[in-house]
Amino acid sequence: MTGSGRTRGWAARDIPDQEGRVAVVTGANSGIGFVTARELARRGARVVLACRSAERGGDAVRLLSDEVPDADVEFRRLDLGDLASVREFAEGFEQDLGGRLDLLVNNAGVMALPYRRTTDGFETQFGVNHLGHFALTGLLLPQLLATPGARVVTVSSMAHALANIDIGDLNSELRYRRWPAYARSKSANLLFVHELARRLADSGADVVAAAAHPGYAATNLQSTGPRMAGRRATEAFMAVGNRVIGQSADTGALPTLYAATAPGVRPDSFTGPRFLAWRGAPAPSPRAPWTRNDVAGERLWAASEVLTGVTYAALKG
Fold first, then answer.
1. Is residue 99, in this structure, part of any structural domain at all?
2. What residues act catalytically?
3. pTM for this structure?
């Protein structure tokens, strides 16, 4: 946030010029990820849409190019539930797009799914929402460190306040409940940002690690879990909620865009909608105290390194 902590009704029109900057946005084929990619491209950034589905990613590139005819955008496949795909994405980025990366937006996520496992055997919500982004950030860290003023923005949720991580059962093997598991993955997002910001500061890097959340934004995220579980009543209920109380994806993306581009954003800050952290213009957002616990952050980091095999060597020594 800026020194005053106020955003004064900050909107997409306030995004600074992004000409010459390179951005990667995960999950950019729909929802707030698509809006984030579109608005960065509208301001001149070169944007990589990192998505699991080639079909949906290609459709998103075409739609974005229709809306922003001079956009410099491309699709690259990234499956955050498959660490081999994460490594392939990072290697391809380094080879094809050079050493510059101004902005990494860790946006993609899944919510309240039936119990599933990723390709590597992790519980899907923890594996995709946290471990996939932990690995991606670590593998792209050399490019971020080489780019003055780079930022990493990780999208969490106010649902993080429903549950802290369980360091002894990160993959929910002892007991699985879809909403607590989602909340734990979102707490993991914030703990990751907290620990990354600390390590960046200790290494003297000027990369800013910050977090954001969209409040209640009407996207397809709410319907995916109930649809996968065959819970039609819940799916219908979520659809009504999206229409009645959800804000648009365009508005829901504003906290992410603020954290990604506004001057003076502080490391380990958490930006969300102003009105009850639910809707409205970006503002500082409350967060659970456990998401700033240094010991928990270190333990989650160590476990994530073991599980993913990504060690953030660029920050050592």
1. yes
2. 182
3. 0.90
